[in-house]
Amino acid sequence: MARVDLQNITKSFGAFKAIHGATATFEEGSFTTLLGPSGCGKTTLLRMISGLETPTSGDINIAGRRINDVPIHKRNLGLVFQNYALFPHRNIAENIAFGLKYRDVPKSDIPAKVKNALDIVRLPGVEERYPSQLSGGQQQRIAMARAIVIEPDVLLLDEPLSALDANLRDEMRVELKAIQDRIGVTSIFVTHDQSEALAMSDKIIVMSSGHIEQIGSPEEVYNHPASEFVAGFLGTSNILDVAVIERNNDSVTLDIPNFGKAQIPLAQASGLGDASKGRIVMRAEKLQLTDSAAPEGAPSAKARVEAVDYQGQLARYFVRIGELQLQVINMIEGRPFSQGAEVTVTLSPDDCTVLAA
Amino acid sequence: MNAWVFIRFYTILVYTFMFAPIFVVLLLAFNSSQFGGFPIEGFSLHWFGELFQNDAIMRAFRTSFALGLMTALVSTVIGILASLALVRYQFPGKEWVTTFLISPVLVPETVLAVGLLIFLRWLHMPRSFALLLLGHSIIALPFVVLVVQARLVGIRKEYEEAARSLGANPVQTFFQVTFPLLMPAVFAGALFAFTISFDNITATIFWRPSGLETVPTQIFGMLRHSVSPEINALGFVMICITVGVPLLAGGLARYFSRKKV
Question: What element of type H or E holds A254?
C-alpha cells in the first residue's frame, strides 16, 4: 500500500500532446477513478504510473520515492486490463503464481497463496483450469487475483469492466469494490462510465483532452462541477447564459432567461469571480415539472412538453420554453406528463451551479 | 452438364501431369531391374540397400541434414528477433527493413547466388560450409519472418505488459510468455527453413565448396551419367522426408494444441 503523487506530468507523442501538466495525489488505501471520454488521456496517465509509458516531463512518486526511471517490473504494481490478459498457455494456478516466481516467496507457500487469492475473488477450486474454460467475469476475477496476490503497492485497473456485458458489469462492480475494501490497496481505476465512477470512487479525477478538469469526491464532482465539461459529462445538465444583477456577502442574484430573478448561494457560484455574466448549470433531475403554478418566490417558467422518454420509475422530458429547450428528469408520481402538456418548470437555486462564462 | 464433364476431365489431367512423375519415381524405386526405367521386372528393396551402402550418398544426406537443421536454427533465431523488432517497436525506416528482409524471395536465386559470391570474393573469403549456411539462411529467412510476424501481430501486447507488471524482466517475459505463445509459428517457420534448405539446388551449386555435396547436388551429379535405380530410391526417401516431416509436424502441433485446450 502506498500513496501516489503526480507532479506536473506531461506526455507528448510526437507533435501530439496527450497530457498537459497533470498534478494529482492518490491517497494511501483510497479508490480513485480517472474519468473521461475516450482519448482524454486517462489511460495514458495510468500507463505512465504503471511504467508502460514514460512521461515527457514531471515526476511520479510512489510512497515518496520518485519512480520515473524505475522499470515496470521493479515497481511492484498490480495491473488489470480490459481484456483480462490471462496467459492462455498456463492454467489458473500458474497464472496467479506468475508474479510470485519473481519475488522471494518460498515455493512451498505458493499453493496456499494462490488458494487464498482465489478465495478473495470468490472463485475457489479452479486452479487446474485454463483461462479459455472460464467466462468473461470469471477471467476478470482471476486477473484481479493475479494482480493482488503479489501484494502490490498500487492496483491499477484499466477499464476492467468494459468487456463484460451489462448485468455482469454491475455485479462485478460491486464485487471489485468489495475486494478492494477487503485488501485496502491503493487503487487507480480508469473508466469512461460515469456511473461506475460515481458508485465506486473515494475520489474522481475528471479529464478532458489531456487536462484534469476537476478532482473531488463523487458528490462534489456531481453537485459542484468545476467546468461546463464536467457538468455536461456527468449526468444530464442544462447550461444557460445568465447575467449578474447583484452581489452580496452570501449570494448572487442572477437574471436567468425565462425564469427571471434567482438568488444563488455564493458557495454555488465560487467559479464566477467578479464577472458580470456567467453560465448556470441546472441538473435535469433538479428541475421540477408541475401542472399547477409554482410556489411563491421560486423561479419558474411556463413550458410545453415536446417529448417524453419513459424509463419506468423515471421519465425524461424534453420541454420547450419559447426558444429554449430543456431536459428534465423527474420521478413519476401517478402518471407521466404526456406530450404537448402545458407545465410549469421550477428550479431550486440551491441546486444550481454558476460558472464563469 | 457437358461443361462439368470437361472441367472434371481437365482437372484430372492437370493433377495427373503434376503427380505422375512423382508416382513414377515412387514406383520405380521398388523395381528390381538394373536400369532406372520401365518395364518393372519385380518388387525389390535392393536399391534402398545399395543407397545405404553408398558412402557418397550417405555423406550427402548427413550434409543436407546438418545444413537443414542449422539453417532452421539460424533463420528462426534471426527471424524471431527481426519479427519482434518489426511488430513490437517503432523505429525510422521500418518499412524499408521489412522490404529488405523479404527481398530474397523476390530476387532470382541465381542473382542472389552470384551476388553473394562476388561479395565474398571482395572480402577475400573462400567458399565454405559457413557460406552455404549463411546463404541458405538468407533464402529461408523471409519465410520465417512472414510466418512469425503474422502470429506475433495476433498476440496482444497486454500479455507481455501483464508479465512485466508482475515482475518479469524483458528477457523473462520473452521466454515465459511471448515465446510459448509464438511456438506454433516458430515451429512452422523452422520447418519451412529446413525444407527450403533441404530442397535447394540452384544456389547450392554456386555456393558449395568443392567436394561438398548435398542430396540435391548429389542427385544432379549422378544424373549426368545415367538414371540409375539408386536415384529412384533416393527420390523416394527425399519425397518421404519433404512431405512426411511437415505432415508429422502438423499432426504433432494439432495434438499439443488439443491437449492445451
Answer: strand A251-256
List CB contacts (< 8 A) between A156 and chain B: 165
pLDDT digits (tens, 9 = 90+) for A176-224: 888 888 888 999 999 999 888 998 999 999 999 999 999 999 999 998 8
Q: Which residues of B touch A73 (CB under 8 A)?
A: 164-169, 173
Does A79 lie at the interface with B, CB-CB under 8 angstroms?
yes
Task: List chain A domain ranges.
Answer: 4-228, 236-356
Identical fold at A4-228 and A236-356?
A: no
Q: What pLDDT sits at residue B261?
A: 43
DSSP annotation of A131 = G
The yes-or-no verdict on residue B260 having pLDDT over 70 is: no
Domain A236-356 belongs to what architecture? Beta Barrel (2.40)
Chain B neighbors of A72, CB-CB under 8 A: 161, 164-165
pLDDT per residue as tens digits for the range A13-63: 988 999 998 999 999 999 999 999 988 999 999 999 999 999 999 999 999
Residue A103 contacts B, CB cutoff 8 Å: yes
**Identity of the amino acid at B217:** T
CA-nearest residue to A130 within chain B is: B261
Q: Pick from A71, A102, A130: which is nearest to B166 by CB?
A: A102
pLDDT of residue A264: 85
Query: Which superfamily does CATH assign the domain made up of B60-259 to?
Result: MetI-like (1.10.3720.10)
Residue B166, min C-alpha distance to chain A (Å): 4
What per-residue string of b and e applies to B156-174 under the rule 16 or more CB within 10 Å gives b? eebbbbbbbbbbbeeebbb
**pLDDT tens track for A246-273:** 888 888 888 888 888 888 888 888 777 7
CATH topology of domain A4-228: Rossmann fold (3.40.50)
Disruptive mutation site among A72, A133, A134, A149 for chain B (greatest number of B CBs within 10 Å):
A72
